[in-house]
Design a protein that fits this description.
By secondary structure, the chain is of the alpha/beta class. Helix content is 16%, strand content 30%. The relative contact order is 0.10.
Length: 547
């Protein structure tokens, strides 16, 4: 996928407009998928999907036979202490003239009709156009984190139909506690509360949300059928922004600029430190023995009968509306995207008494099909399964207890003369064994496939007599046995997180057998050690002998 295009009405599904995706076929033998030479520019075309599917696609994603591949275009880069403010961020078209040339230079990245789409340019290292992010990507990452939120934002519901999202009379912000309180409508998932709360309790976030719909209305009034939404950040101040990107030279051919394909992680602030989320006539119960009998309760709003269907083999489409007569399906997207939510739990209000009971579904619904849709649905067919994508906010777990001996060994090494040792800070690149198959597929990289818990990784940086090396350990399942790895560069220099990620990916493809990964790229040296030491001191001596 090369770029996002415009938004247009969908006559077949009035509840869900479409957004253009610019796509190009990958040429045979390509390895660097972000390179200009990696795609066939003559066969570039645009397709359209419902905006409810926006959470599922990113620029640089690779697709084959309608399935998203594990491989992806672009490199990971983190911009530390990036300043977001009206002075450092500007909105402009992808084809805007900057220093006499198009903002997105054709020499480096071709996007076809996507040139009319809006971008945000952010000042970086003195260059006002140092970082370039498509407006649609800002919407996808910060606002449209689920199908329901995406449709609400493109419809302008936060400004014009807020009551369809929350009960405004029972929402509020308690400044002294920095706590937000929401009462969600039944259509929205609990995980949506974080983004909804940010929008309602931050003027910047509300303005950024409203801008999406307002900017399209202005264009529609001018008679335009294809609309290009504008966007803005939901906060101001400093952030550490991790993205997937490709580099591009500025017109002076000296400075580097960065075209962002996808934002992956942001530490920008939220307006609250805690959030409480309730629902319309919720059937949450008080402590046992304090509730009233069910016969005195009213029925809670029935929820759609969810099938629990595995949608891996289903096909999303945007030409036919979903059916309200068919059980629904949910696509879970586990992500850790907002640093401010790292230690924040969604709280539920305590109840003294429950006034409602679970009424179940309105009536039995038909079994789901393999044809999926993200529209609001109608009663005219029973073919398309109503489907929604929901982001699940996950938090990076503490290191497993099984790593205690590894940490003790590193502390021991650090106390030896002429040796420095430390645990490398965990980043997404090296925190877990990379997946090599689609998320729902059983694979070795999962520590527990049922819960999709990935194997944790721990890396130590060792410096001895000016030579650097790394020790790599990972989680084992019960009954497994693997080796400790020591890796280093021939030059004695430091291995980057990106290089270590490539090694972990090779390891995942070999089901944890380091000996099967040779030869390693870049002439990286690999030594393995069996876990046969009777003590931490014996382990340290074995490591020192190998260094």
């Amino acid at each position: 996928m090369d770029w996002f295009g415009g938004v247009e009405r969908n006559p077949q599904i009035p509840s869900e407009p479409k957004i253009q995706l610019i796509i190009s076929p990958v040429v045979a033998g390509a390895t660097d998928y972000a390179a200009t030479s990696a795609v066939n520019h003559e066969e570039r075309r645009s397709i359209s999907i419902g905006v409810g599917q926006l959470p599922l696609v990113t620029i640089g994603s690779l697709w084959q036979n309608r399935h998203c591949l594990v491989e992806i275009a672009g490199k990971t880069k983190t911009f530390d202490n990036l300043v977001i403010s009206p002075e450092t961020v500007r909105l402009l078209k992808s084809d805007a003239l900057v220093e006499g040339q198009s903002l997105i230079r054709k020499k480096y990245h071709q996007i076809g009709v996507g040139l009319a789409a809006n971008c945000l340019a952010i000042e970086w290292q003195g260059d006002p156009y140092g970082i370039i992010i498509p407006a649609a990507e800002i919407i996808r990452f910060y606002y449209a984190t689920s199908t329901d939120l995406a449709k609400a934002i493109f419809a302008g519901d936060f400004r014009h139909e807020l009551g369809s999202i929350v009960n405004p009379a029972e929402c509020g912000y308690f400044e002294q506690e920095r706590r937000g309180r929401l009462k969600l409508r039944k259509e929205f998932a609990d995980a949506d509360a974080y983004v909804i709360g940010r929008i309602l309790f931050s003027p910047e976030a509300f303005k950024g949300t409203a801008l999406v719909h307002d900017s399209m209305i202005k264009q529609a009034v001018q008679g335009k059928s294809r609309l290009y939404p504008e966007a803005a950040f939901p906060f101001s101040g400093k952030t550490n922004l991790r993205v997937r990107m490709k580099s591009m030279k500025a017109p002076d051919e000296e400075r580097w600029r960065f075209i962002v394909f996808a934002v992956e992680y942001c530490t920008g602030p939220f307006p609250f430190s805690a959030i409480t989320c309730d629902r319309d006539n919720s059937n949450l119960r008080p402590e046992e023995g304090h509730d009233q009998p069910d016969e005195l309760k009213a029925p809670a709003y029935p929820r759609k009968q969810q099938s629990g269907k595995d949608v891996t083999d289903g096909e999303l489409q945007s030409d036919e509306d979903a059916s309200k007569e068919v059980q629904s399906a949910v696509i879970d997207l586990p992500e850790e995207r907002f640093g401010a939510l790292a230690n924040m739990e969604l709280e539920k209000p305590e109840k003294d008494i429950c006034h409602y009971f679970n009424a179940g579904s309105v009536r039995p619904l038909a079994l789901p099909t393999d044809v999926l849709g993200t529209g609001d649905g109608n009663y005219s067919n029973d073919v398309v399964t109503p489907t929604s994508a929901e982001v699940k906010h996950v938090r990076q777990e503490a290191l497993p207890a099984s790593f205690a001996n590894f940490e003790a060994m590193v502390r021991h090494l650090d106390g030896l003369p002429g040796c420095q040792a430390r645990i490398r800070p965990r980043t997404d690149a090296i925190a877990y064994i990379p997946l090599t198959k689609p998320k729902r597929t059983w694979q070795w990289a999962y520590f527990h496939s049922g819960t999709q818990q990935r194997r944790a990784v721990i890396v130590a940086d060792i410096v001895r007599e000016g030579h650097e090396c790394n020790l790599i350990e990972f989680q084992w399942r019960e009954g497994e046995s693997f080796k400790l790895a020591m890796v280093s560069l021939p030059s004695g220099g430091k291995l980057s997180d990106e290089q270590l990620y490539l090694l972990l990916r090779m390891l995942a493809k070999q089901d944890g057998r380091w000996e099967n990964t040779k030869p390693l790229p870049g002439n990286i040296c690999l030594i393995t050690l069996k876990h046969t030491w009777p003590s931490v001191d014996a382990c340290v001596q074995a490591v020192i002998s190998k260094i």
